[in-house]
Design goal:
Layout lengths: L1 H24 L25 H6 L8 H10 L1 H6 L15 E6 L15 E8 L4 E10 L2 E11 L6 H12 L1 H6 L1 E11 L4 E7 L1 H9 L7 E6 L9 E8 L5 E9 L2 E7 L1
């Protein structure tokens, strides 16, 4: 059980960070410039100060998109400045987890690619069967939300996998039936100074899964431009915006259905 306790500590640490940031910025992901929560200093010669807003925007926010996204969802005033025209703002909170659906490990490098000019954040609403696409683009070296449009899940190329994910995250029985048991599990061990490979029983997997951020209502998928062509393999990276929480789920398609093959 050593491997399971290790990953529990990682998950719990990440969730604590998310909870603290939730208290810091508010549950709805908005900043403190709405007139209710901001800190006001009333004194001769001093203007109103919003101390939280001053601290949230790093100088590197426009270099890596993930840094910009964290700043965007942390500060309502920053989000307003970086939203073009009448485009609706992305209402995502700092305590929300994001995912990246990919097929090749090389595509993971896109998360740190400073040359990207276009990124789409997909807000997948399972109940409405709708994907709300928020299109971000760079102008003069700065990221802006430039467009918003909707797609039905059934109309996109990877519809079958998204339908599978909807049932996988929302139905515990379906999730059980979609596991290749015993489930392969890999993680980095500081004690061993490297990756350790082991297997999880169904009970261990269930404990692990129940401590992860919930994705069964809404899922935020970040499309950095990775290619998705395979019909028999998909991977999903689960990551926290505000901490080092990161887990990979590797799926395979065989005998007419998707199955979870490995977690790392």
């Amino acid at each position: 059980m050593k491997h399971l306790w290790f990953i529990f500590s990682v998950v719990c640490g990440g969730m604590c960070c998310m909870s603290l940031l939730s208290c810091r910025f508010g549950q709805d992901g908005k900043g403190d410039d709405d007139g209710h929560d901001s800190v006001e200093v009333v004194a001769p010669g001093l203007e109103e100060l919003d101390l939280f807003e001053e601290a949230v925007i790093p100088k590197t926010a426009d270099e890596v998109f993930d840094d910009f996204l964290f700043s965007y969802v942390s500060s309502a005033s920053f989000a307003k400045q970086r939203t073009v025209g009448s485009v609706g703002e992305l209402t995502m909170g700092v305590d929300d987890a994001a995912v990246m659906i990919y097929e090749r490990d090389n595509d993971l490098a896109l998360q740190k690619d400073t040359s990207l000019q276009q990124v789409t954040v997909e807000r997948i609403d399972w109940d409405e069967n709708i994907i709300h696409n928020f299109r971000f683009g760079k102008k003069l070296g700065q990221w802006f939300l430039t467009a918003e449009e909707d797609d039905e899940i059934s109309e996109i190329p990877n519809a079958s996998f998204l339908v599978f994910l909807r049932d996988f995250v929302g139905d515990s029985l379906y999730r059980h039936e979609s596991l290749q048991l015993p489930l392969r599990f890999s993680f980095y061990s500081e004690e061993d100074e490297g990756m350790v490979e082991t297997e999880l029983s169904y009970e261990e997997w269930t404990e692990l899964y129940n401590d992860l951020p919930r994705l069964d209502d809404v899922m935020y998928n970040v499309d950095y431009g990775q290619s998705l062509f395979s019909t028999n393999r998909k991977s999903l990276l689960l990551k926290g915006l505000s901490n080092g929480l990161s887990m990979k789920f590797h799926f395979g398609f065989s005998d007419g259905r998707w199955m979870l093959m490995e977690v790392e």
